[in-house]
Please model this.
Amino acid sequence: MGVTLEEIARASGFSVSTVSRALTNPNYPVNEVTRKRITEVARAMGYKPNMAARSLRTDQTNTIGIIADDILSPFVPPIIRGIQDYLREHDFLSLIVNSDWDPDIEQDAINALISRPVDGIVFAESSHLAINDNLRQSGKPYVFAHRLFGSTIANSVVPDDHYGAALAVRHLVGLGHQRIAMIKGREGWHSASRRFAGYQAELAAQNIDFDPALVQQGDWEYEGGYSAARVLFAVASPPTAIFAANDLMALGAICAAQDAGLRVPQDIAIVGYDNREFTRIVRPKITTVSMPVYEMGHTAAKLLLGQIRNGQEDFEEIQIKGRLFIRESCGADVSQQTVEGLDPATTSRRILLDRDPDPDR
Amino acid sequence: MGVTLEEIARASGFSVSTVSRALTNPNYPVNEVTRKRITEVARAMGYKPNMAARSLRTDQTNTIGIIADDILSPFVPPIIRGIQDYLREHDFLSLIVNSDWDPDIEQDAINALISRPVDGIVFAESSHLAINDNLRQSGKPYVFAHRLFGSTIANSVVPDDHYGAALAVRHLVGLGHQRIAMIKGREGWHSASRRFAGYQAELAAQNIDFDPALVQQGDWEYEGGYSAARVLFAVASPPTAIFAANDLMALGAICAAQDAGLRVPQDIAIVGYDNREFTRIVRPKITTVSMPVYEMGHTAAKLLLGQIRNGQEDFEEIQIKGRLFIRESCGADVSQQTVEGLDPATTSRRILLDRDPDPDR
DNA sequence: GTGAGAACAGCAAACGTTTTCTGTCAGATG
DNA sequence: CATCTGACAGAAAACGTTTGCTGTTCTCAC
Model:
């Protein structure tokens, strides 16, 4: 169906080897006029290299696999985007499979990807650590982008939740708040404990006593935020601000406040986390800390390609910092919108300005 | 690096051909005990077929390409999900590339995918009809899932916007509304004109006179909905209901109503379109018509695989119907939530019950 | 007892590349 | 003038499969 090297060879009067070298090996010394001629003929005939043959010969595919728990999760598409943008610069393609939170499917996916259509794998927001023996012994490099459970592990790129939580709390303190409550994330989740730790750490850094009565357990959902907030409003000495561990719970808290006759932000300030899309759509718009998902993907891809080139070489867990998006729910002057939380070392201008999927619209 | 057929052959005492047939060709007559033995040895040795070699030989890859304008668009991930769920049942993988609304990139993507790592291509939410000669003459099957511009074209699966708009209007009429305004989508978009046509058609079907004063041009965005609504409120004989061509504009209209001192739905009913995630998060929750994105992807994948099997065989444009999600913004009794708009012929129970990403939470 | 056919297994070619090795020729060097 | 070197081009092997063809053996019908 497609034009082959041999046909080009015949048409141009050279041998297959020369044609191959002229077309793909810029280092091999081939006469300039020969190369020109061959290139020309190849273009004229519409030559497209047969990747299967090339892969068979070279044992590399210029393709990586992405295993995501669910592409419908709000964080996964930006991670993928970050990965793909980096890949494109290096002529790599990506094969994406959903594991659907199902270990068996994830297993199948890994096996399918090991059969060599890919040179490496990135796990995007994977829950169960499915680095099984198959994967290990295949020798294929792999990287985790935002694994949700488990402790620190090599080859992973994760959000710096501790830092981000501190950022949120610091913002509230800066606005004069001293009684700052927190609605925690679901128990067992890595982000939940990290964000709580960041909250406590920043309180300590600001010399504010930690008050257990101001901490409520949440569930990552709207409902959990709503009911947690109701409890907080009833505390003897109620908070003037609430840090919700994610945006959905922040929204729940806002609605609870409104239903209780409190105005946000005048009567109570509420800050969220994740920078979900709806935070800039809702009334009031929610101040929040972003998940640096795009950059996590970008970084993961960079590291993976590095490993593919230089052989597997484990690296430490890398944490990416999010930034604070100041909107309406805390009462800050929105015009002074800062880009605090930006780590210039890891965030390229380009990502920030053009590509960051987080800019306010 | 990997176990090959030859190694299995040596280990099991059979020839490479027999091993191959035992492992992959269930039709070829090979002795049952032989097959057992070979299968066993293969498993023991951890055999994984080399896809590159297989593809080279058979000229098929069991992989399709998906070209999406932007995976960050709200509709793309569910389309992809629909595609992939179908693919998995047939042991296909999918290579995804973003074209970023850039014809050049799309061109590159097509070229990259033609070099045979894929057996077919689906364009997910693609704008510019980039079916170029390269693609045509490659002979690879392709399908469009939700193309945004251009007129009817073969091999595409699109939402039935005319039907959906009628559905929304009929719902309003059913609630007693007679003066129903519409905020149109951005000009030039296929969906915009189709939804407007559906609105007009349903008015006619209900014997309601069409009043041009009740139609405002929108821009698909919040702001457009907001300002269009303000204009509508100032009309001599104002509408009692508004059909916004998408959810973002519906939200803008709701906020405009609230700012104007009108209660939604008591003073004015508002219905949106798309069933975006935020419609079930906002107050009031927005009644809307869903984009059957998941099913569109699923259908597109099915059609594409059919073409791959039986050779390219163009089919007519296929329209998929969305359904009405009754929520709070129109004042209907929410308990009587129906699944109107469901076409049982094309929507499998499974998709609807388990997989439809649209169920209310 | 012979021949036909079924059931199985192996040989070898082929898929389109890349790459090692070998060869040729021109010019430089002694 | 003989030899060496470098610049280039070609022959052929190899990557791991699949598959058409060729055997071989065995069974069964005549």
Summary: The first helix of chain A runs from residue 5 to 12. Chain A has a mean pLDDT of 88.
